[in-house]
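ok trying this again, last paste got cut off
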Amino acid sequence: MTRVLSPVAGRVVGLAGVPDPVFAQAMVGPGTAVDPRRAPGRAIAPVSGRIVKLHPHAYVVVDAEGHGVLVHLGIDTVKLKGAGFELLAAEGDEVAAGDPVVGWNPAEIESGGRSPICAVVALDAGDGALTDVLESGEVGAGDELFTWD
């Protein structure tokens, strides 16, 4: 079983709260989303494992059980081409849950007209694989968002 942690502090809004149909309709996979606090901060690894994909606006960490968790920082943030993001790790790095991966400022993303909401998605998770999925409430970075069996 994999405990998936929140990469950022903020308010849980669920995937339905993401202003992007690909995430909102769980086409990428099941999970949840967090509307981050509007302050400069660091997005952390949601699980312990290897960073298999790392872009300034998104990253995937795969744990020892082969569970890949996607963290997507904001919506349409790929168009920023890395502006406003700072990589704190490298693709291929082994990380512990809670290690910083990307530095960013959600307020800056929002001031540019984009949503800073962070989707946290269990890639290739089957139906019913996730339990105790948070859909609302306040979380701190490192708080559990869901478990993956």
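PB: full thing came through this time. The chain is about 5% helix and 40% strand.
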